[in-house]
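Limitations

Structures in this collection are predictions, not experimental determinations, and the ligand pose is part of the prediction. Treat each record accordingly. The example that follows, with zinc ion as the small molecule, is included so readers can see exactly what is and is not provided: the inputs are given verbatim, and the output is the predicted complex.
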Amino acid sequence: MAKLSVGGQAVIEGVMMRGPKDVATAVRDPNGRIQVETHPVSSIADRYPILKKPMLRGTVSLVESLVLGLRSLSYSAKMAGDEDEQLTDKEMAGTIIFALVLASILFIAIPTGAAKFFHFITDDPVFLNLMEGFLRLAIFLAYIGGISRMKDIRRVFQYHGAEHKTIHCYEAGLPLTVANVQRFSRLHPRCGTNFLLIVMLVSIFVYAFLGWPSLIERIVSRILLLPVVAGISYELIRFAGRTTNPVALKLIKPGLWLQYLTTRPPQDDMVEVAIESLKAVLPAEEILPGSGHYLTEDAQAAAATEPPASDHVPALES
Ligand SMILES: [Zn+2]
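Predicted complex:
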């Protein structure tokens, strides 16, 4: 039987999973209990079908997963006891703007500015764009390497590994138990890490068409062309996620290697959280008999008395 398309991301002390209809965030609270929040998810592309067209769907999906991811992250921070309050929409917008400005400086302004040091070799725009691409990749690797030294980030990377292993186990058609899940690889071809790497490679090609104008023009044009870069990258990773072509499978290898940095082997109690998260977004008939149940007793009792999912207020509108 064909498996449903599921994806996810790691959050603080937990895992967010996105199924065909719902998105769930499961978090281990400071008392050791697993808390699960589920809400239905809809895409703006359902209302405006033109947004489902190739090249447009990449940017739409990127922005929507960014927003979903941040909400889930903010929920997990609250549940894991890091924050007193969930972020308000205003704080969320502030966080996004801050992250975008920081990313523009780190991954656009600095590499394209520093590429001028290669002028002494040649003024060829293709060469300079290539050097800029290498600098961008180097900054990205240094950034990931740097944050992975932080203890909290390491735990997030472990939950990231738990998310991948759990999805592999589901896609292999095995009951979701800790023992089954732990047997699978922590690297997954549909990971967002691959997407970032492909974005970097595609941007070298796209930006090469612009020649080598002034620094300000380069920065502005690169930001404006991001939807084009994201669109092409999305189509490529979509293709890579389905293909069995041996050449294409070789080409996605670097993205998988990069996941050695962005994932870590998870502990069993982290896998339990990932399993609860995935089960929350799967239709009942998709959860194989023998799959584990890792909620604590009082959480199970609470789940039993909860109203059906259709009565839930969509968190996106709260
Ligand atoms: Zn991933």
